[in-house]
Amino acid sequence: MSTKKRILMIWPSMVIAILFGLMTIKSGSAVLFTDGDARAAAGDYVGFVLWFNFVAGFFYIIAGIGLWIKQQWATKLAIVIASLTILVFAAFGVHILMDGNYEIRTVIAMILRSVIWIAIAAVATIYTKQT
User: Which class for 123: exposed (0-12), middle (13-18), buried (19 or more C-beta within 10 A)?
Assistant: First the structure.
């Protein structure tokens, strides 16, 4: 595969990872560290899910940068992020089954995060094998 094709293949994943990380940090910090509109709008947020996503946002950015500079570890990091996101989603499911309070938008957000990171990890794996 040509270098140009490889770059076109991985570029969207890099951009999505970095932008998604920035948005995750911004929204998570607004709820975690301020007592205002963002926290009120968050409703029945689940603490461990919020903290995981906030911290993961930093790793999203690191993974995106790693993919950009063609580091092998970035693929492994993307796989770890996808795996941990699924595990936290499963724990969140247990929280729901135990009649814990939650917001439906958290379910939607965790589905989105899981799908995005599975896709980034898959693309990064293919990209790594091609380079």
Answer: buried
Give the whole-angstrom CA distance, residue 70 versus residue 58: 18
Per-10-residue mean pLDDT, the chain, length 131: 68 95 96 87 93 98 94 96 98 98 96 97 86 58
Cα angle for residues 4, 6, 122 (degrees, 5° grid) = 160
Alpha carbon distance 106, 108 (integer Å): 5
Please calculate the CA angle 76-80-81 and round it to the nearest 5 degrees.
Answer: 115
Q: How many CB atoms lie within 10 A of CB 95?
A: 17
Cβ atoms within 10 Å of 37's Cβ, excluding its own: 9
Residue 101 neighbours by CB under 8 Å, 6+ apart: 44, 46
Q: For residue 81, what are the contacts with CB-CB under 8 A and spacing of at least 6? A: 56, 59, 60, 63, 117, 120, 121
Write down the residue that tokens 């989603």 correspond to. Answer: 89
pLDDT of amino acid 61: 98
Residue 24's pLDDT is 97
